[in-house]
UniProtKB/TrEMBL annotation:
Residues 1-27 form the signal peptide. The keyword Hydrolase applies. It comes from the Bacteria. Residues 65-120 form a coiled coil. This is Septal ring factor EnvC (AmiA/AmiB activator). InterPro entries: Cell_wall_metabolism_enzyme, Dup_hybrid_motif, M23ase_b-sheet_dom. Residues 279-295 have a biased composition (Basic and acidic residues). Keywords: Coiled coil, Hydrolase, Metal-binding, Metalloprotease, Protease, Signal, Zinc. It comes from Gellertiella hungarica. GO terms for biological process: proteolysis. Pfam families: Peptidase_M23. GO terms for molecular function: metal ion binding; metalloendopeptidase activity.
Length: 459
């Protein structure tokens, strides 16, 4: 009896060793417990939930980061070495803003990839858990065979029938077990690859977040230095800001605010007049002259210009969204009150940078009723661009800004406002409205990318 048990145990060990040492052969059809092909693409709901978790983890990491004193000193020394002119510093600010936008786009893309990898890892682990139970059953059967081994045909010919039955049983069980083992090995290898990819993605994201922190500090130092060169206008700017705040407190609507600004605020009035004169000048030019002027402006824009380099009406299909993110609501969509939205709403990452989509005069920068922090840009040709939902404004009323110049940064959470009703997100949201001669218009024709759910992340 003991000899039979030893022979059965040896048989079980031989089968297992054979299975584990055999070259991997994947089954022709999916096996119970294996990872189905469809599972490779996680459901959008699952992915969104994982993205939220990933985003929260990355935000915690970002909050723990800080620049060393040596790095701050290095940034300061680099800025001190620059030519201290407004044109040079402004150019460097725009370059810094562009780099920051690129880094933010990489972080957003990496965040989604990391979430997809985490979902994939969870799927594989679930599959392996199911496979473990199945293999435990087969191993238990082999152990039982070891305790009650099949008869040896050559030793006892009278047990030939039992031997044949045992052979049939093993012939049925062993190939199935081999297929399961092959699939298990493939999934284990896939899990190892996914884990390695997760670690690589996390390392890349940590590097990008450190670079973003450095770029934020560089940009703030550049802005501060540039503002220091313009202190002679500080008193005038402060006086206009106080007047604008008083007008905003009295205005009952955005139309009324814009009209009162361009009537009572000198810088806004001058911006409107400059835009009108530029438009009249363009109308007096031939089409060939206008085309030549556009080409010159694109090739070598005047760094000291105080009017848009290119007419706003000619920029259709060329503007980049002022912030990286996901478009939640488009022009004409239900705004949560049963009316059509007058602008678009983009969900962003916390602390995302908001830049000017085009050359423009800042005719208002401050708090306005339920809109919260608001910036109004006069881009000429009778157009105004309205931006709301920001946390901190980095520009000043009366200033002329270039395309790509930083205007504001987003906060940590969505700002409750009239422009962000009925949005199922707590992420920061930027509301963007185009107005032509005082009436909201669809901004879609101006953007470089179609607003099909994802905002353009390119800068």
């Amino acid at each position: 009896m003991q000899t039979g048990k030893r022979r059965g145990a040896a048989l079980a060990a031989l089968v297992i060793a054979s299975l584990l040492s055999s070259p991997a052969r994947l089954p022709a059809e999916p096996l119970a417990g294996s990872v189905p092909a469809a599972a490779a693409e996680p459901a959008e709901e699952t992915l969104r939930a994982q993205q939220l978790k990933t985003r929260q983890e990355l935000e915690a990491v970002a909050r723990s980061m800080k620049l060393s004193d040596e790095k701050v000193k290095s940034l300061q020394d680099n800025i001190n070495a620059l030519q201290q002119t407004s044109a040079t510093l402004r150019s460097k600010v725009i370059e810094s803003a562009g780099r920051r936008r690129e880094i933010e786009a990489r972080i957003a893309a990496g965040e989604r990839r990391l979430a997809e990898l985490e979902v994939r890892q969870t799927t594989i682990r679930g599959s392996l858990h199911e496979r473990r139970a199945l293999l435990a059953e087969v191993l238990a059967a082999l152990q039982r065979m070891g305790r009650n081994p099949p008869p040896a045909l050559l030793v006892t010919p009278e047990d030939a029938l039992a031997s044949v039955r045992s052979a049939i049983l093993l012939g049925a069980v062993v190939p199935g077990m081999r297929r399961q083992t092959d699939q298990l090995m493939a999934d284990l290898a896939d899990l190892a690859r996914v884990r390695a990819d997760i670690e690589t993605e996390k390392s890349t994201l940590n590097g990008d977040m450190a670079n973003r922190l450095e770029e934020e500090r560089r940009m703030d130092l550049l802005i501060a230095r540039n503002e220091a060169l313009s202190q002679e206008n500080a008193a005038t700017i402060e006086e206009e800001r106080r007047k604008a705040e008083a007008l905003a407190a009295r205005a009952r609507s955005m139309d009324e605010l814009i009209a009162s600004l361009e009537k009572d605020i000198a810088s806004a009035r001058e911006a409107a007049e400059a835009a009108r004169l530029a438009e009249e000048k363009r109308k007096s030019m031939t089409e060939a002259e206008r085309q030549k002027a556009r080409e010159t402006a694109l090739a070598n824009p005047d760094q000291n210009r105080i009017a848009p380099a290119i007419p706003f009406g000619d920029l259709k299909g060329q503007l980049v969204l002022p912030v990286n993110g996901e478009t939640l609501r488009r022009f004409g969509d239900d705004d949560g009150t049963g009316h059509g939205a007058k602008g678009i709403t983009v969900a962003t990452a916390p602390g995302a940078l908001v830049t000017a989509p085009a050359d423009a005069h800042v005719v208002f920068a401050g708090q306005f009723r339920s809109y919260g922090q608001m910036i109004i840009l006069n881009t000429g040709d009778g157009y105004h661009l309205v931006l709301t939902g920001m946390d901190a404004i980095k520009t000043a009323q009366g200033k002329f800004v270039f395309a790509g110049e930083p205007l504001a940064v987003m906060g940590e959470k969505r700002v409750a406002s009239a422009a962000a009703l009925a949005l199922e997100t707590d992420r920061p949201t930027l509301y963007i409205e185009f107005r032509k001669d005082g009436k909201p218009v669809d901004s879609q024709p101006w953007w470089t990318a179609k607003l099909s759910g994802k905002a353009n992340n390119d800068t």
